């Protein structure tokens, strides 16, 4: 009952596909902080540093960018 899955994995998440998708659409990192996206500077910083973000954030970006999660992130071993 008290067993918890340990985060045992060797890879990491990269958001380089997000920056590529945004570049193709003429969207900048600064645009993410403006009214159309309204992401906090802290959240944008987490994306820049390839840190964990909530699935809700990925869903939000997919909706706003009209794309799929594979257009935003990838798992790298």
UniProtKB/TrEMBL annotation:
InterPro entries: Cro/C1-type_HTH, Lambda_DNA-bd_dom_sf
Matches recorded under Pfam families: HTH_26
Top-level taxonomic group: Bacteria
Location of the HTH cro/C1-type domain: 17-76
GO molecular function list: DNA binding
UniProt protein name: XRE family transcriptional regulator
């Amino acid at each position: 009952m008290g067993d918890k899955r340990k985060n045992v994995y060797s890879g990491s998440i990269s958001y380089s596909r997000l920056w590529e998708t945004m570049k193709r659409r003429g969207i900048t990192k600064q645009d993410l902080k403006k009214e159309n996206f309204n992401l906090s500077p802290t959240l944008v910083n987490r994306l820049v540093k390839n840190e964990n973000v909530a699935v809700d954030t990925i869903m939000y970006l997919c909706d706003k960018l009209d794309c799929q999660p594979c257009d935003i992130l990838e798992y790298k071993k």
